[in-house]
Design a protein that fits this description.
Structural class: alpha+beta
Strand content: 15-25%
Distance between the termini: 54 Å
Shape: rod-shaped
Helix content: 40-55%
Largest sheet: 6 strands, antiparallel
Number of helices: 14
Oligomer: single chain
Strand order of the largest sheet: 7-6-11-10-9-8
Radius of gyration: 64 Å
Length: 565
């Protein structure tokens, strides 16, 4: 047998499902987005750094390449190289150019033997002079009019030059000297420092490092050594880097930009730990909230269930009070109305059962009233002596009367059956009172077929005989019946002594009093019985005129048996 689910647990599970799961999925999606976005940003920033460095260096190379050609062909430079005159003009041209550059340089003018004729440097170490002579020697041997190469030369103190432009100076086709520009390493390094990039490296076509922001990449002979891992990342000292490479065709320079992914991995790990901790904390928090919310929202249901169990146990006062202001309050109100209606019906049924029981006892008592039986038997004894035919009629009528009164076949009968019983009763009374009692019955054919409570008219007939003779010697009783507005109306009128206005008011109060404690219960019981069976608008009304008689009117809903229709 499947175990029934607890509504409180269902709400708690539903809250967990619809609150925690979306938030957890949101965390996961946010983590995935963060990782993907960080990867995208890493790649994008690294490539952008390479592009920015390439743009700057390309401008530097083009400027010096054009400048060295321009200066070598300048008349002031040729004149100075050949005659040592006009040196201020040469320096003026150099400084005008050099001051505009982001990468500064040192200018040298040498004769064809490599001796320095002019220099923008205040001091040149011997190593620097030797390096320049080596450059001139290589150009002379190779008959190379221009040279651009990487050469790491200590200039003064801690300052180095890393790249040299050299150009022949000719007059009338003959080499008379050389012009060189040596570019500072420090300015190169400043130029390749770019935001959001960790390592930048500039090499020539031989992978010789011209400049770098981190000496960790320098290998033997100032060569760049980059090792790639199986996953495609560059590995430097066990650290992984994402690398991007760009190229300057004019200078044959290669630019490498590197960004560490290990730092990103630490960031991812921190995010995962944070999300895991936040998820656990969120899980406990949501569970607590789920229990609180489910308990709060099922409190009304618990009250209803308790009330229903109490009702099943027989507690008819198990009302429930809920002030939640929602559907549960409406449900509780409906339950209370249902319980109140049930209690009302039970009270009505109990009262109706009591009335029926009292009515039946009263009727049996009346049928076997000693005076009634005595009177009938006395009349029978007299009739046996005087008229056997009358005696036989008395026996037959009495037998029908007793048979009908003790019959238990249904609580309702057709009006014509009840009228036959009343007629038999009145015939026996007529044998007793002879000409002092007369009666008439005027009931429509439609009313004859109506269903009425058994012995409904008995009380009214008995009261007419009992009280009608108190002030008069003779009595006439008329019974009228008709149907009007879907109601059956039965009137029992007599021409007896009637009642005074005060007595009539008292009788009416007794009839209408639901808690009658007086000994006069005949018409009261009949009225209450009809009200409980058919509603408040039905029942018994009594009227009359003192000295002229009493009128009793009985109104009930008109209803027929199917067979009589």
């Amino acid at each position: 047998m499947a175990q029934k689910r607890n509504f409180k647990d269902s709400i708690r599970r539903m809250f967990l499902l619809y609150a925690f799961v979306p938030i957890f999925l949101l965390f996961v999606l946010f983590l995935i987005f963060t990782v993907v976005n960080a990867r995208f940003m890493l790649v994008h920033q690294t490539k952008d750094a390479g592009k920015a460095i390439r743009s700057s260096l390309e401008e530097v190379y083009r400027s010096y390449h054009e400048e060295v050609n321009r200066m070598a062909g300048l008349e002031q430079v040729i004149e100075f190289t050949d005659t040592r005159r006009n040196s201020p003009l040469v320096y003026e041209e150099f400084y005008n150019f050099n001051n505009r550059q982001r990468v500064k340089s040192i200018m040298h003018i040498l004769n064809k033997n490599g001796d320095i004729l002019a220099s923008s440097a205040n001091f040149s170490p011997e190593s620097s002079d030797n390096a320049l002579k080596a450059v001139i020697l290589r150009m002379s041997r190779a008959q190379q009019p221009m040279l651009a190469e990487t050469n790491h030369i200590r200039f003064s103190h801690d300052r180095y030059t890393v790249y040299t432009f050299a150009k022949e100076i000719r007059r009338t086709g003959q080499i008379i000297g050389y012009l060189t520009y040596q570019l500072y390493e420090e300015d190169f390094q400043k130029l390749i420092f770019v935001q959001n990039n960790e390592i930048a490296v500039v090499t020539d076509q031989h992978h010789t490092i011209i400049a770098t922001t981190n000496n960790i990449v320098r290998g033997l002979l100032n060569k760049l050594t980059l090792e790639k891992g199986n996953d495609g990342y560059i590995v430097i000292n066990k650290g992984k880097y994402y690398g991007s490479e760009t190229f300057i065709p004019l200078a044959q320079w290669r630019i490498y930009t590197l960004s560490a992914i290990q730092l990103k991995n630490y960031t991812y790990l921190s995010l995962v730990v944070f999300f895991a901790a936040a998820s656990v904390l969120l899980l406990f928090l949501i569970q607590y909230l789920a229990r609180t919310i489910s308990s709060r929202h099922t409190r009304a249901i618990d009250k209803l269930l308790y009330a229903v169990k109490e009702l099943q146990a027989g507690n008819m006062q198990s009302y429930v009070y809920i002030n939640s202001g929602n559907e549960f309050e409406t449900l509780a109100d409906q339950y209370n109305r249902m319980l109140a209606r049930l209690n009302e019906l039970l009270a009505r049924n109990e009262e109706l059962s009591d009335l029926r029981r009292v009515s039946e006892v009263k009727h049996l008592q009346s049928q076997f009233h000693p005076h009634f039986i005595f009177n009938v038997l006395e009349t029978l004894r007299y009739a046996i002596v005087v008229n056997n035919k009358v005696a036989q009629d008395i026996v037959l009528i009495l037998s029908r009367l007793l048979r009908y009164s003790i019959s238990t076949e249904g609580n309702t009968v057709m009006l014509k059956d009840d009228l036959n019983y009343v007629a038999d009763y009145l015939k026996l009374q007529q044998l007793r009172f002879k000409d002092r009692l007369s009666y008439t019955m005027n009931v429509s054919e439609e009313a004859m077929g109506a269903l009425v409570p058994r012995l409904m008219l008995q009380v009214a007939i008995e009261n007419s005989i009992k009280y009608g003779y108190k002030q008069k010697e003779s009595l006439n009783i008329s019974v009228n019946g008709y149907v009007t507005d879907r109601d059956l109306v039965i009137e029992v009128n007599d021409d007896g002594g009637g009642m005074s206005e005060e007595r009539l008011r008292q009788v009416r109060e007794i009839i209408l009093d639901a808690d009658n404690q007086t000994p006069h219960i005949g018409l009261h019981n009949l009225h209450r019985r009809l009200v409980l069976m058919y509603g408040e608008r039905y029942g018994v009304q009594i009227g009359g005129v003192p000295g002229e008689g009493t009128a009793v009117q009985i109104v009930i809903p008109y209803g027929k048996e199917a067979a009589y229709v």
